[in-house]
């Protein structure tokens, strides 16, 4: 999807990072490093297939960084939310209903 970025991501994240704490070495095998400038582009590329999979007529999706919002009629939004709960895990995305607000 983004060849120029993929080399940097591969070099940065294919092996665990060594974290040194109290004379012990811990290996960071999941997630990204805080403040890593590659995090947001990597997230954007990674979430794009899911965003495309849940595109619906009657619902508008807006995204910025790792936040997303939708607008549209209530039934369409509910259908999208249900679909996101169903197919999200196949993309590594798990909905936390406690984090959903309707403002």
Fill in the keyword field for this structure.
alpha+beta; two-stranded antiparallel ribbon; 103 residues; 4 strands; 39% helix
Strand and helix layout:
Layout: H1 3-13, E1 17-21, E2 24-28, H2 39-53, E3 59-64, E4 67-72, H3 74-87
Antiparallel strand pairs: 1-2, 3-4
Structure overview:
This protein is α+β, with helices and mostly antiparallel strands and 103 residues long. The strands form 2 sheets. A two-stranded antiparallel sheet has the order 1-2. It has a two-stranded antiparallel sheet with strand order 3-4. It has helices spanning 3-13, 39-53, 74-87, and strands at 17-21, 24-28, 59-64, 67-72.
Could you state the order of secondary-structure elements as H and E? HEEHEEH
Measured as a percent range, the helix fraction is: 25-40%
- What structural class results from the helix and strand content? alpha+beta
Mean pLDDT: 83
Give the CA-based shape: elongated
Major β-sheet annotation: 2 strands, antiparallel
Question: Short summary of the structure?
Answer:
It is built from 3 helices and 4 strands, in the order H-E-E-H-E-E-H. With 103 residues, the protein is an alpha+beta fold. The strands form 2 sheets. Strands 1-2 form a two-stranded antiparallel ribbon. It has a two-stranded antiparallel ribbon with strand order 3-4.
């Amino acid at each position: 999807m983004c060849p120029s970025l993929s080399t940097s991501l591969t070099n940065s994240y294919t092996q665990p990072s060594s974290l040194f704490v109290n004379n012990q070495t811990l290996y960071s095998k999941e997630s990204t490093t805080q403040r890593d400038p590659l995090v947001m582009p990597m997230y954007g590329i990674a979430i794009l297939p899911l965003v495309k999979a849940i595109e619906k007529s009657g619902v508008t999706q807006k995204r910025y960084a790792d936040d997303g919002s939708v607008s549209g009629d209530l039934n369409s939004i509910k259908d999208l939310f249900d679909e996101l709960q169903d197919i999200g895990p196949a993309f590594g995305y798990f909905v936390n209903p406690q984090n959903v607000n309707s403002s």
